[in-house]
UniProtKB/TrEMBL annotation:
It comes from Corynebacterium hiratae. Gene3D superfamilies: Cytochrome c1, transmembrane anchor, C-terminal (1.20.5.100), NAD(P)-binding Rossmann-like Domain (3.40.50.720). The keyword ATP-binding does not apply. This is UDP-N-acetyl-D-mannosamine dehydrogenase. Belongs to the UDP-glucose/GDP-mannose dehydrogenase family. It holds the Pfam family UDPG_MGDP_dh. Residues 322-421 form the UDP-glucose/GDP-mannose dehydrogenase C-terminal domain.
Length: 421
Protein backbone atom coordinates (compact mmCIF):
# COMPACT_ATOMS: atom_id res chain seq x y z
CA UNK A 1 0.00 0.00 0.00
CA UNK A 2 1.32 3.45 -0.89
CA UNK A 3 1.51 5.58 2.29
CA UNK A 4 -0.87 8.54 2.37
CA UNK A 5 1.81 11.20 2.21
CA UNK A 6 1.28 13.91 -0.30
CA UNK A 7 2.31 17.36 -1.35
CA UNK A 8 -0.84 19.36 -0.69
CA UNK A 9 0.78 22.37 -2.43
CA UNK A 10 -0.08 20.52 -5.65
CA UNK A 11 -3.63 21.66 -4.92
CA UNK A 12 -3.55 25.44 -4.58
CA UNK A 13 -7.32 25.59 -4.79
CA UNK A 14 -10.04 22.93 -4.86
CA UNK A 15 -13.59 23.33 -6.11
CA UNK A 16 -16.28 21.01 -4.74
CA UNK A 17 -19.40 20.97 -6.88
CA UNK A 18 -22.66 20.11 -5.08
CA UNK A 19 -22.79 20.94 -1.37
CA UNK A 20 -25.13 18.25 -0.08
CA UNK A 21 -24.65 15.52 2.51
CA UNK A 22 -21.42 14.39 0.83
CA UNK A 23 -20.00 17.41 -1.00
CA UNK A 24 -20.10 19.79 1.94
CA UNK A 25 -18.34 17.50 4.44
CA UNK A 26 -15.76 16.59 1.77
CA UNK A 27 -15.12 20.29 1.14
CA UNK A 28 -14.81 21.00 4.87
CA UNK A 29 -12.40 18.10 5.51
CA UNK A 30 -10.09 19.22 2.69
CA UNK A 31 -10.27 22.83 3.92
CA UNK A 32 -9.44 21.65 7.45
CA UNK A 33 -6.04 20.56 6.09
CA UNK A 34 -5.29 24.15 5.07
CA UNK A 35 -6.16 23.81 1.37
CA UNK A 36 -8.39 26.64 0.11
CA UNK A 37 -11.71 25.19 -1.02
CA UNK A 38 -14.58 26.89 -2.81
CA UNK A 39 -17.87 25.01 -2.70
CA UNK A 40 -20.24 25.49 -5.61
CA UNK A 41 -23.99 24.96 -5.43
CA UNK A 42 -26.96 26.15 -7.48
CA UNK A 43 -29.01 26.64 -4.31
CA UNK A 44 -28.47 30.20 -3.06
CA UNK A 45 -30.06 29.43 0.34
CA UNK A 46 -27.57 26.58 0.92
CA UNK A 47 -24.69 28.85 -0.14
CA UNK A 48 -25.83 31.60 2.27
CA UNK A 49 -26.23 29.15 5.12
CA UNK A 50 -22.74 27.68 4.54
CA UNK A 51 -21.12 31.11 4.33
CA UNK A 52 -22.75 31.89 7.68
CA UNK A 53 -21.03 28.75 9.04
CA UNK A 54 -24.32 26.86 9.43
CA UNK A 55 -24.87 23.30 8.15
CA UNK A 56 -28.09 23.21 6.07
CA UNK A 57 -28.83 19.61 7.19
CA UNK A 58 -28.42 17.52 10.33
CA UNK A 59 -25.13 15.65 10.80
CA UNK A 60 -23.82 15.02 14.34
CA UNK A 61 -20.59 16.87 15.13
CA UNK A 62 -20.19 18.44 11.69
CA UNK A 63 -21.38 21.95 12.66
CA UNK A 64 -18.21 22.72 14.60
CA UNK A 65 -15.88 21.75 11.76
CA UNK A 66 -17.83 23.77 9.21
CA UNK A 67 -17.97 26.85 11.42
CA UNK A 68 -14.18 26.65 11.94
CA UNK A 69 -13.16 26.36 8.26
CA UNK A 70 -15.63 29.06 7.20
CA UNK A 71 -14.45 31.40 9.93
CA UNK A 72 -10.77 30.97 9.10
CA UNK A 73 -11.57 31.60 5.42
CA UNK A 74 -10.38 28.23 4.03
CA UNK A 75 -13.87 27.28 2.87
CA UNK A 76 -16.39 29.52 1.17
CA UNK A 77 -19.42 28.80 -0.99
CA UNK A 78 -20.82 30.44 -4.12
CA UNK A 79 -23.05 29.69 -7.10
CA UNK A 80 -20.46 30.54 -9.80
CA UNK A 81 -17.75 28.06 -10.75
CA UNK A 82 -14.07 29.03 -10.27
CA UNK A 83 -10.63 28.33 -11.72
CA UNK A 84 -9.24 25.47 -9.56
CA UNK A 85 -6.49 22.84 -9.60
CA UNK A 86 -8.94 20.09 -8.75
CA UNK A 87 -12.71 19.72 -9.04
CA UNK A 88 -14.72 17.17 -7.07
CA UNK A 89 -18.20 16.61 -8.47
CA UNK A 90 -20.74 15.48 -5.83
CA UNK A 91 -24.07 16.08 -7.55
CA UNK A 92 -27.15 13.85 -7.40
CA UNK A 93 -27.58 11.01 -9.91
CA UNK A 94 -31.32 10.27 -9.79
CA UNK A 95 -32.93 7.46 -11.72
CA UNK A 96 -35.70 7.73 -14.27
CA UNK A 97 -39.03 5.87 -14.37
CA UNK A 98 -37.33 2.92 -16.16
CA UNK A 99 -34.55 2.89 -13.48
CA UNK A 100 -31.82 4.09 -15.85
CA UNK A 101 -29.62 6.87 -14.51
CA UNK A 102 -30.29 10.51 -15.27
CA UNK A 103 -26.92 12.25 -15.60
CA UNK A 104 -28.33 15.74 -16.16
CA UNK A 105 -26.68 17.15 -13.02
CA UNK A 106 -23.27 15.72 -14.00
CA UNK A 107 -23.73 17.25 -17.48
CA UNK A 108 -24.64 20.62 -15.94
CA UNK A 109 -21.62 20.50 -13.60
CA UNK A 110 -19.32 19.67 -16.55
CA UNK A 111 -20.73 22.57 -18.57
CA UNK A 112 -20.19 24.96 -15.66
CA UNK A 113 -16.61 23.92 -14.95
CA UNK A 114 -15.33 23.26 -18.50
CA UNK A 115 -14.62 26.93 -19.30
CA UNK A 116 -12.31 27.13 -16.25
CA UNK A 117 -10.30 23.96 -16.93
CA UNK A 118 -6.58 24.37 -17.54
CA UNK A 119 -3.95 21.78 -18.50
CA UNK A 120 -2.99 19.67 -15.48
CA UNK A 121 -6.37 20.07 -13.76
CA UNK A 122 -7.96 17.08 -12.04
CA UNK A 123 -11.70 16.33 -12.20
CA UNK A 124 -13.01 13.67 -9.81
CA UNK A 125 -16.54 12.33 -10.04
CA UNK A 126 -17.81 11.21 -6.60
CA UNK A 127 -21.49 10.88 -7.51
CA UNK A 128 -22.65 7.26 -7.53
CA UNK A 129 -22.81 6.33 -11.19
CA UNK A 130 -23.28 3.34 -13.50
CA UNK A 131 -20.16 1.88 -15.13
CA UNK A 132 -18.90 4.15 -17.91
CA UNK A 133 -20.22 7.45 -16.51
CA UNK A 134 -16.79 8.87 -15.63
CA UNK A 135 -15.54 8.14 -19.14
CA UNK A 136 -18.66 9.71 -20.57
CA UNK A 137 -18.11 12.82 -18.41
CA UNK A 138 -14.47 13.08 -19.58
CA UNK A 139 -15.52 12.86 -23.25
CA UNK A 140 -18.13 15.55 -22.64
CA UNK A 141 -15.47 17.81 -21.08
CA UNK A 142 -13.27 17.39 -24.17
CA UNK A 143 -16.22 18.12 -26.47
CA UNK A 144 -16.68 21.34 -24.52
CA UNK A 145 -12.92 22.05 -24.48
CA UNK A 146 -11.36 20.55 -27.64
CA UNK A 147 -8.12 22.42 -26.83
CA UNK A 148 -7.53 19.97 -23.93
CA UNK A 149 -6.60 16.28 -24.04
CA UNK A 150 -7.23 13.08 -22.05
CA UNK A 151 -3.83 11.63 -22.95
CA UNK A 152 -1.46 11.61 -19.95
CA UNK A 153 1.55 12.42 -22.14
CA UNK A 154 0.11 15.54 -23.79
CA UNK A 155 1.08 18.98 -22.50
CA UNK A 156 -2.55 20.05 -22.54
CA UNK A 157 -3.79 16.96 -20.63
CA UNK A 158 -6.47 17.08 -17.95
CA UNK A 159 -6.95 14.17 -15.56
CA UNK A 160 -10.23 12.49 -14.72
CA UNK A 161 -11.03 9.91 -12.02
CA UNK A 162 -13.85 8.33 -10.05
CA UNK A 163 -13.78 8.09 -6.26
CA UNK A 164 -17.14 6.96 -4.90
CA UNK A 165 -18.23 8.32 -1.54
CA UNK A 166 -18.74 5.70 1.16
CA UNK A 167 -19.66 7.55 4.34
CA UNK A 168 -22.69 6.59 6.38
CA UNK A 169 -25.01 9.52 7.07
CA UNK A 170 -24.91 10.11 10.82
CA UNK A 171 -21.28 8.92 11.07
CA UNK A 172 -19.66 11.26 8.57
CA UNK A 173 -17.21 12.83 11.05
CA UNK A 174 -15.69 9.43 11.74
CA UNK A 175 -15.97 7.79 8.33
CA UNK A 176 -14.79 10.65 6.08
CA UNK A 177 -11.24 10.28 7.39
CA UNK A 178 -11.21 6.60 8.35
CA UNK A 179 -12.98 4.73 5.54
CA UNK A 180 -10.79 3.14 2.88
CA UNK A 181 -11.38 4.76 -0.52
CA UNK A 182 -11.52 3.18 -3.96
CA UNK A 183 -9.92 5.46 -6.55
CA UNK A 184 -10.00 4.79 -10.27
CA UNK A 185 -8.57 7.12 -12.89
CA UNK A 186 -9.25 7.04 -16.60
CA UNK A 187 -5.47 7.06 -16.98
CA UNK A 188 -2.58 6.18 -14.61
CA UNK A 189 -1.77 9.87 -13.93
CA UNK A 190 -5.43 10.54 -13.19
CA UNK A 191 -5.43 7.74 -10.61
CA UNK A 192 -2.23 9.04 -9.03
CA UNK A 193 -3.34 12.66 -8.85
CA UNK A 194 -6.71 11.69 -7.37
CA UNK A 195 -4.88 9.57 -4.81
CA UNK A 196 -2.81 12.62 -3.84
CA UNK A 197 -5.96 14.70 -3.40
CA UNK A 198 -7.72 12.17 -1.14
CA UNK A 199 -4.50 11.57 0.81
CA UNK A 200 -4.74 15.18 2.01
CA UNK A 201 -7.57 14.22 4.40
CA UNK A 202 -8.13 10.45 4.32
CA UNK A 203 -5.93 8.45 6.69
CA UNK A 204 -7.19 5.00 5.61
CA UNK A 205 -6.12 2.82 2.67
CA UNK A 206 -6.46 4.38 -0.79
CA UNK A 207 -7.19 1.49 -3.13
CA UNK A 208 -6.23 2.15 -6.73
CA UNK A 209 -8.02 0.74 -9.77
CA UNK A 210 -9.60 1.99 -13.01
CA UNK A 211 -12.65 4.26 -13.24
CA UNK A 212 -15.18 1.61 -14.33
CA UNK A 213 -14.22 -0.83 -11.57
CA UNK A 214 -14.42 2.01 -9.03
CA UNK A 215 -17.93 2.84 -10.25
CA UNK A 216 -18.98 -0.80 -10.02
CA UNK A 217 -17.37 -1.22 -6.57
CA UNK A 218 -19.69 1.40 -5.12
CA UNK A 219 -22.79 -0.14 -6.69
CA UNK A 220 -21.67 -3.56 -5.48
CA UNK A 221 -21.28 -2.41 -1.86
CA UNK A 222 -24.77 -0.98 -1.71
CA UNK A 223 -26.31 -3.89 -3.61
CA UNK A 224 -24.70 -6.34 -1.19
CA UNK A 225 -26.39 -4.53 1.68
CA UNK A 226 -29.71 -4.37 -0.19
CA UNK A 227 -29.66 -8.11 -0.91
CA UNK A 228 -28.81 -8.88 2.73
CA UNK A 229 -31.65 -6.65 4.01
CA UNK A 230 -34.02 -8.26 1.48
CA UNK A 231 -33.08 -11.64 2.95
CA UNK A 232 -33.96 -10.31 6.42
CA UNK A 233 -37.21 -8.80 5.13
CA UNK A 234 -38.18 -12.04 3.43
CA UNK A 235 -37.44 -13.90 6.67
CA UNK A 236 -39.74 -11.45 8.50
CA UNK A 237 -42.66 -12.45 6.24
CA UNK A 238 -41.88 -16.16 6.60
CA UNK A 239 -41.61 -15.82 10.40
CA UNK A 240 -44.89 -13.91 10.60
CA UNK A 241 -46.61 -16.78 8.80
CA UNK A 242 -44.93 -19.41 11.02
CA UNK A 243 -45.36 -17.56 14.33
CA UNK A 244 -41.63 -17.08 14.96
CA UNK A 245 -39.95 -13.94 16.35
CA UNK A 246 -37.72 -12.91 13.42
CA UNK A 247 -35.39 -10.78 15.55
CA UNK A 248 -34.69 -13.62 17.95
CA UNK A 249 -34.17 -15.93 14.97
CA UNK A 250 -31.63 -13.60 13.32
CA UNK A 251 -29.83 -13.01 16.59
CA UNK A 252 -29.45 -16.76 17.05
CA UNK A 253 -28.37 -17.41 13.46
CA UNK A 254 -25.80 -14.59 13.65
CA UNK A 255 -24.02 -16.45 16.45
CA UNK A 256 -22.69 -18.72 13.72
CA UNK A 257 -19.18 -17.41 12.93
CA UNK A 258 -19.90 -17.13 9.20
CA UNK A 259 -23.47 -15.77 9.28
CA UNK A 260 -24.23 -12.04 9.43
CA UNK A 261 -27.85 -11.25 8.57
CA UNK A 262 -28.96 -7.62 8.70
CA UNK A 263 -32.22 -6.43 10.24
CA UNK A 264 -35.73 -6.44 8.76
CA UNK A 265 -37.74 -3.23 8.80
CA UNK A 266 -40.53 -1.35 7.01
CA UNK A 267 -38.52 -1.27 3.77
CA UNK A 268 -35.27 0.24 2.52
CA UNK A 269 -34.89 3.97 2.03
CA UNK A 270 -32.39 6.74 1.49
CA UNK A 271 -30.80 7.87 -1.68
CA UNK A 272 -28.23 5.06 -1.87
CA UNK A 273 -29.21 1.50 -1.02
CA UNK A 274 -32.70 1.93 -2.48
CA UNK A 275 -31.32 3.44 -5.70
CA UNK A 276 -27.87 2.10 -6.60
CA UNK A 277 -28.83 -1.55 -7.26
CA UNK A 278 -31.08 -0.30 -10.06
CA UNK A 279 -27.99 1.00 -11.88
CA UNK A 280 -26.64 -2.55 -12.02
CA UNK A 281 -30.04 -3.94 -13.02
CA UNK A 282 -30.36 -1.43 -15.82
CA UNK A 283 -26.74 -2.02 -17.01
CA UNK A 284 -27.13 -5.85 -17.12
CA UNK A 285 -30.85 -6.71 -16.85
CA UNK A 286 -30.49 -10.32 -18.01
CA UNK A 287 -27.82 -11.18 -15.48
CA UNK A 288 -28.79 -9.12 -12.41
CA UNK A 289 -31.61 -11.44 -11.31
CA UNK A 290 -30.89 -11.66 -7.58
CA UNK A 291 -30.18 -7.93 -7.26
CA UNK A 292 -33.45 -7.16 -9.06
CA UNK A 293 -35.45 -9.54 -6.87
CA UNK A 294 -33.95 -8.04 -3.72
CA UNK A 295 -35.12 -4.59 -4.82
CA UNK A 296 -38.63 -5.96 -5.35
CA UNK A 297 -38.67 -7.70 -1.95
CA UNK A 298 -37.59 -4.51 -0.16
CA UNK A 299 -39.98 -2.34 -2.18
CA UNK A 300 -42.83 -4.70 -1.31
CA UNK A 301 -42.36 -4.38 2.45
CA UNK A 302 -44.26 -1.06 2.92
CA UNK A 303 -47.46 -2.58 1.47
CA UNK A 304 -47.11 -5.57 3.80
CA UNK A 305 -46.86 -3.18 6.78
CA UNK A 306 -49.92 -1.25 5.55
CA UNK A 307 -51.87 -4.52 5.33
CA UNK A 308 -50.88 -5.34 8.92
CA UNK A 309 -52.20 -1.98 10.12
CA UNK A 310 -55.49 -2.33 8.26
CA UNK A 311 -55.94 -5.86 9.64
CA UNK A 312 -55.34 -4.57 13.18
CA UNK A 313 -57.94 -1.83 12.71
CA UNK A 314 -60.70 -4.10 11.37
CA UNK A 315 -63.99 -3.46 13.19
CA UNK A 316 -62.68 -0.38 15.09
CA UNK A 317 -64.82 2.75 14.99
CA UNK A 318 -63.09 6.13 14.53
CA UNK A 319 -59.71 4.43 14.42
CA UNK A 320 -56.60 6.35 15.45
CA UNK A 321 -53.05 5.34 14.46
CA UNK A 322 -49.89 6.75 16.03
CA UNK A 323 -47.14 6.51 13.37
CA UNK A 324 -43.73 6.83 15.00
CA UNK A 325 -41.02 8.04 12.62
CA UNK A 326 -41.01 9.11 8.98
CA UNK A 327 -37.24 9.52 8.38
CA UNK A 328 -35.58 6.90 6.17
CA UNK A 329 -33.61 5.59 9.16
CA UNK A 330 -32.87 6.25 12.81
CA UNK A 331 -31.70 9.54 14.31
CA UNK A 332 -31.58 11.60 11.14
CA UNK A 333 -33.92 14.13 9.52
CA UNK A 334 -33.52 12.78 5.96
CA UNK A 335 -36.84 11.82 4.34
CA UNK A 336 -35.48 10.80 0.91
CA UNK A 337 -37.01 7.57 -0.45
CA UNK A 338 -38.28 6.88 3.06
CA UNK A 339 -40.44 3.74 3.30
CA UNK A 340 -41.92 5.04 6.56
CA UNK A 341 -43.03 8.26 4.92
CA UNK A 342 -44.49 6.22 2.06
CA UNK A 343 -46.42 3.99 4.47
CA UNK A 344 -47.87 6.97 6.35
CA UNK A 345 -48.75 8.75 3.09
CA UNK A 346 -50.48 5.71 1.55
CA UNK A 347 -52.36 4.97 4.79
CA UNK A 348 -53.57 8.58 4.90
CA UNK A 349 -54.51 8.90 1.22
CA UNK A 350 -56.25 5.53 0.85
CA UNK A 351 -58.07 5.61 4.21
CA UNK A 352 -59.62 9.06 4.72
CA UNK A 353 -61.53 7.73 7.75
CA UNK A 354 -58.23 7.05 9.57
CA UNK A 355 -57.02 9.63 12.08
CA UNK A 356 -53.20 9.45 11.89
CA UNK A 357 -50.98 11.13 14.48
CA UNK A 358 -47.45 11.38 13.10
CA UNK A 359 -44.43 11.67 15.38
CA UNK A 360 -41.05 12.68 13.97
CA UNK A 361 -38.70 14.25 16.53
CA UNK A 362 -36.11 15.20 13.90
CA UNK A 363 -38.21 17.52 11.72
CA UNK A 364 -39.91 20.79 12.60
CA UNK A 365 -42.89 20.29 10.30
CA UNK A 366 -44.38 17.51 8.20
CA UNK A 367 -43.45 17.60 4.50
CA UNK A 368 -46.21 18.87 2.15
CA UNK A 369 -47.12 15.32 0.94
CA UNK A 370 -48.32 14.68 4.48
CA UNK A 371 -49.36 18.12 5.72
CA UNK A 372 -51.73 18.43 2.74
CA UNK A 373 -53.76 15.49 4.08
CA UNK A 374 -56.56 16.58 6.42
CA UNK A 375 -56.59 13.28 8.39
CA UNK A 376 -52.95 13.62 9.47
CA UNK A 377 -51.45 15.70 12.30
CA UNK A 378 -47.96 16.01 13.78
CA UNK A 379 -47.83 15.32 17.50
CA UNK A 380 -45.33 14.49 20.19
CA UNK A 381 -44.80 10.86 21.20
CA UNK A 382 -46.84 10.66 24.39
CA UNK A 383 -49.81 12.59 23.04
CA UNK A 384 -49.98 10.45 19.89
CA UNK A 385 -49.68 7.14 21.74
CA UNK A 386 -52.33 8.14 24.31
CA UNK A 387 -54.85 8.82 21.51
CA UNK A 388 -54.03 5.72 19.44
CA UNK A 389 -55.70 2.35 18.96
CA UNK A 390 -52.69 1.13 16.97
CA UNK A 391 -49.11 2.25 17.61
CA UNK A 392 -47.08 1.79 14.43
CA UNK A 393 -43.33 1.97 15.09
CA UNK A 394 -41.56 2.75 11.81
CA UNK A 395 -38.13 4.14 12.74
CA UNK A 396 -35.84 3.14 15.63
CA UNK A 397 -35.09 6.74 16.69
CA UNK A 398 -33.41 6.85 20.10
CA UNK A 399 -36.47 8.61 21.59
CA UNK A 400 -38.59 5.57 20.71
CA UNK A 401 -36.01 2.98 21.79
CA UNK A 402 -35.88 4.63 25.23
CA UNK A 403 -39.67 4.97 25.53
CA UNK A 404 -41.41 4.10 28.78
CA UNK A 405 -43.13 0.95 27.49
CA UNK A 406 -45.96 1.20 30.04
CA UNK A 407 -47.33 3.90 27.70
CA UNK A 408 -48.12 1.06 25.27
CA UNK A 409 -50.37 -0.83 27.70
CA UNK A 410 -53.71 -1.62 26.08
CA UNK A 411 -52.56 -0.60 22.60
CA UNK A 412 -52.13 -2.77 19.55
CA UNK A 413 -48.44 -2.42 18.70
CA UNK A 414 -46.94 -3.00 15.24
CA UNK A 415 -43.20 -2.75 15.76
CA UNK A 416 -41.52 -2.92 12.34
CA UNK A 417 -38.01 -2.55 13.82
CA UNK A 418 -38.25 -5.03 16.71
CA UNK A 419 -37.21 -2.51 19.38
CA UNK A 420 -39.92 -3.24 21.96
CA UNK A 421 -39.68 -6.99 22.23
N1 LIG B 1 -31.78 -0.90 6.84
C1 LIG B 1 -32.52 -2.02 7.20
N2 LIG B 1 -31.89 -3.02 7.89
C2 LIG B 1 -30.57 -2.94 8.23
C3 LIG B 1 -29.82 -1.81 7.84
C4 LIG B 1 -30.47 -0.82 7.16
O1 LIG B 1 -33.72 -2.12 6.92
O2 LIG B 1 -30.08 -3.87 8.87
C5 LIG B 1 -32.44 0.17 6.09
C6 LIG B 1 -32.39 1.53 6.81
O3 LIG B 1 -33.42 1.65 7.74
C7 LIG B 1 -32.53 2.48 5.63
C8 LIG B 1 -31.80 1.74 4.51
O4 LIG B 1 -31.72 0.39 4.90
O5 LIG B 1 -33.89 2.65 5.27
C9 LIG B 1 -30.40 2.27 4.22
O6 LIG B 1 -29.74 2.56 5.43
P1 LIG B 1 -28.21 2.18 5.69
O7 LIG B 1 -27.87 2.62 7.06
O8 LIG B 1 -27.99 0.75 5.37
O9 LIG B 1 -27.42 2.95 4.58
P2 LIG B 1 -27.35 4.47 4.03
O10 LIG B 1 -28.23 4.56 2.84
O11 LIG B 1 -27.53 5.47 5.11
O12 LIG B 1 -25.80 4.52 3.59
C10 LIG B 1 -25.30 3.55 2.68
C11 LIG B 1 -23.96 3.01 3.20
N3 LIG B 1 -23.54 1.88 2.39
C12 LIG B 1 -23.17 0.70 2.94
O13 LIG B 1 -23.19 0.50 4.14
C13 LIG B 1 -22.74 -0.37 2.00
C14 LIG B 1 -22.92 4.13 3.17
O14 LIG B 1 -21.66 3.63 3.57
C15 LIG B 1 -22.84 4.74 1.75
O15 LIG B 1 -21.89 5.80 1.70
C16 LIG B 1 -24.21 5.27 1.42
O16 LIG B 1 -25.14 4.17 1.40
C17 LIG B 1 -24.16 5.92 0.04
O17 LIG B 1 -24.15 7.17 -0.03
O18 LIG B 1 -24.08 5.20 -0.96
Amino acid sequence: MVPNTTDSRAFGKVSVVGLGYIGLPTAAFIASKGIPVVGIDVNQDAVDSINAGTVPFFEPGFGELLARVVEDGTLSAQTEQIDADAYIVCVPTPFREDHSVDIKYIRAASEALAPYLKPGALVVLESTSPPGTTEDMAKHLIELRPDLSLNDEDENAIFVAHCPERVLPGKIMEEMENNDRVIGGLTPKGTQLARDLYATFCTADLLLTNATTAEMAKLTENSFRDVNIAFANELSLICDRLGIDVWELIELANHHPRVNILQPGPGVGGHCIAVDPWFIVSAAPEEAKLIHTARNVNNGKPQWVIDQVLKALEGKENPVVAALGIAFKNDIDDLRESPSLEIVKRLGVDNPQLDIRVVEPNVEALPPVLSNLSNLTKQDTEEAIAAADVVLLLVNHRQFVGLDQSLLDGKTVIDTKGIWR
